[in-house]
Specification:
The complex is a heterodimer of chains A (273) and B (272). Chain A has 273 residues and is α/β, with parallel strands linked by helices. Chain A contains nine helices and ten strands. Chain A has a domain of 132 residues: 3-Layer(aba) Sandwich (Rossmann fold). Chain A is globular. In chain B, helix 6 crosses helix 7 and helix 9 packs parallel to helix 10. The chains are: A alpha/beta (273), B mainly alpha (272). At the A-B interface, strand 6, helix 3 and helix 5 of A face helix 8 and helix 9 of B.
Chain lengths: 273, 272
Amino acid sequence: MAHPSATTAEAGPKLRIDRVSKRFPLPDDKEIEAIRDVSFGVEENEICVILGPSGCGKSTVLRMVAGLETPTAGVLSLDDHEITGTDRERGMVFQAYTSFDWLSVRGNVEYGMRINGVPVAERRARAQKYIDLVQLSKFSEVYPSQLSGGMKQRVAIARTLANDPALLLMDEPFGALDAETRWHMQELLVDIAENANTTVVMVTHDIEEAIYLADKIVFLSSHPGRVHEIIVPDFKKGQRFTNKEEVIAMDGYGALERQIMRMMREQGASEVL
Amino acid sequence: MIEPDRAHRQPWLQLRKPVSRKQGFLSAIFIWALFFAVWEGVSLAGLVNDLLVPAPHAIVATLIDMLINRDFVSDILISVWRVVLSFGIACAIAVPLGIAMGAFPAIEAVANPFVSAWRYLPAPSFIPILLMWFGTGETPKLVLLIIGVIFFLITLIMDHTKQVRSELVETGLTLGGNRWTIVRTIILPAAMPNVLIAMRQMLAVTWTYLVIAEIVASTTGIGAMMMRARRFLHTDEIMAGIIVIGALGLTFDILFRKLHRWLYPYLYSRES
């Protein structure tokens, strides 16, 4: 599978984050600076992973892209339109389970289309397509309380994609899953991103997950979060793999993992210890 | 030699292990049967003055006689009607207001200082003024029942609405929902199961205020019947009234549980 960003690089990035800073007010009239002067772009059909030690503000960046937070300074824009609030263009999957318990799997996947007035027939068809894509066909009439954690996250992914967003935002979506389910979900995500031509921006602190999934890794340093380095995992030669061990076995995987671990340690050490 | 069966026998007192449905049911029957058996025994043995403490069988006989021959049914119906009407009005105000307060902090900021203060004013203390304002008809009784529960109900509903997880709301926002859509399609359905439980709990409190209202200021209803009976030392009728109120309270509680199960079946299905 070919790396998609190489061909569209001329047109300018789809998502542009331009010198964005974010300060949160504290109760005692002081402020905390979460993000300082962060700039990077995400290309169409790219999987961009934001990685960094805890406290680097990676979730804050993602929440600003979603429109759930507003930047204190700088501009975020999607297809050259400034991001000013939440919109169906930028659908988000959270680490916490967000299934609507009162709706079946199908009801959940149709939800976004329903509130946006998509006609019933089209809604049905699109929901079925994405339910199939996340391999929940047998569970479409089941309530979320009967699903496992991995299945709930698949529902959330299908629900977001069925709403046809320009960007799929994911905030540590597999963080609450057990290790085995997590890598199955990572492989499924690669598969989905290929099949649905999705542009993905994902936050994680899992180095292995970042290297496996990312076409591009934005590594943030902490306190305040700044772009420390933008890493393209060159050893994958612009390919994507729906089989994780293939990537782990490749030359260059180990070296990159060591490099990022060292960066994690250096950038995060003062905080953890 | 140890019998194989003996090895699996569990002691009756299991530390924090849930009992089976059957054991729970039998235990509940047992404790009430014991209560009435002791009462009946004490009465039959002549250990208590049966003018003040009639035997259970005498109370049941009186109750049946009242229902069939003495128009007790109309007292029961009027009491039930007062509870249902006043509680319906209280819910019609409390549910939208409580949801709005829980969903929008700006509404909470205005309404909560007012609502929460009223909770500390005992509803029965309003009886004299309600009688002056509304006379002796149905209105003062209904108003008492409403102010007795509505402020607690609003606060409970607000709290349950606030407990709807922010990720659900944010998910709705990033799927393109506006504020009204989110309230209607996420906050409301997420909060309603707990709102219904709050309603069930406050309905029990309504029965308490009903009896107060009917004892103090009424000539009709179960409470008024009990006050009439007191004048003639008819302890059996008073106790029959208490039993009927208890039975009605329990019936409404069961109906609410059934309604909850029927409206929110997904809360009762677990991973199979």
